[in-house]
Design brief:
single chain; four-stranded antiparallel β-sheet
Length: 176
């Protein structure tokens, strides 16, 4: 593993993927990163649905009106879910798990992109959560936060620029 500073600078969202599959070993490392991520009160109240079936990935890409069509080109999707009745911090816990998986993807040389599903939907009134539950047959008590599209990136992305960092958004309270 490279140093974390470089990994963070290099991690970018990828929306185009090659046809090459993600290896079972890489998938296990990605899921391991999620399962080791910190959670509120150590509850580990997240669940993950791994989807590598092309037809199901294509259906998932239609779970909301905009911003998910590119998922059709991904060889792997991971649905990130939690149970709001068990933990009021499910959104935060699932977010931490998702970004942990994205950093692991980057470390493995894979591309990934977060696709927001919570509070999104279709113009016909169906929520993305409902659509995804229908596609995958998920338990009703789970709420979908996002789907990660994962694969071997088919595009090159520049490193994040140090010049674009918004240091003005940081408030430092110094001792008097």
């Amino acid at each position: 593993m490279e140093d974390f500073k470089s990994l963070v600078q290099r991690r970018r969202s990828h929306r185009r993927f090659t046809d090459e599959e993600v290896s079972a070993e890489d998938l296990q490392l990605i899921l391991r990163a999620a399962l080791m991520s910190p959670t509120s009160k150590g509850q580990r109240n997240w669940q993950f649905a791994v989807v590598d079936n092309k037809r199901d990935i294509e259906k998932l890409s239609d779970a909301k009106d905009m911003g998910s069509q590119f998922m059709k080109g991904a060889p792997l999707a991971i649905v990130v879910m939690g149970d709001p009745k068990v933990n009021d911090c499910w959104i935060e816990d699932c977010s931490i798990a998702a970004i942990s998986m994205q950093y692991q993807c980057e470390d493995l040389g894979l591309g990934s992109c977060w696709i927001q599903m919570r509070a999104r939907g279709l113009s016909d009134g169906h929520t993305a959560n409902e659509v995804i539950h229908g596609i995958l047959g998920l338990p009703d008590h789970l709420e979908v936060l996002c789907v990660l599209a994962i694969g071997h990136a088919a595009d090159e992305r520049k490193l994040q620029s140090e010049d674009d960092l918004k240091w003005e958004n940081v408030i430092i309270k110094a001792d008097d």
